[in-house]
């Protein structure tokens, strides 16, 4: 049995100060926060412009048209040390997309295969897949990258003394080098044969 409380007077909305109204306080605090944030951004920009002017450093994006003066190890588009900084930035974006797409495809394939392995009725495959999942789930990706870089790539030989694998594949501390097919006369017929 519940005991009900009756005749409790309702609190009047008009009977309080505007300071005690939660909506007004919320709007006031948000306005103060925005004003402080805008003042901080203005101070940072003004200070940066003043310091750049005193140091005779030009700001802007004009440097993107200047000569870069360095090489990029791998690029899908042509890049030399005479190319511009803008071209170097574009090469960096394209390389980032290449690594991201390659990583997504590789992770999808590995995840699919390990997931199938976890569901396998074969005890060894199921336990190996479980161990793989439990090990890599609990290790931060940066630690895995560091392990592969320092624990595996650093012990491989230099590019000049690369390990020769079958089918003219070479393994060195720079990575794996695969042969690139060179299209000769009649190469289009080979492509048509695969279709």
TrEMBL record:
Subcellular location, record wording: Cell inner membrane
GO terms of biological process kind: amino acid transport
Lipid bilayer topology: Multi-pass membrane protein
Main location: membrane
Gene3D superfamilies: MetI-like (1.10.3720.10)
Highest taxon above the source species: Bacteria
GO molecular function terms noted in the UniProt entry: transmembrane transporter activity
Gene Ontology cellular-component terms listed: ATP-binding cassette (ABC) transporter complex
Transmembrane segments: 27-45, 88-115, 135-156
Keywords: Amino-acid transport, Cell membrane, Membrane, Transmembrane, Transmembrane helix, Transport
NCBIfam families linked: HEQRo_perm_3TM
Family assignment from sequence similarity: Belongs to the binding-protein-dependent transport system permease family. HisMQ subfamily.
Protein name as annotated: ABC transporter permease subunit
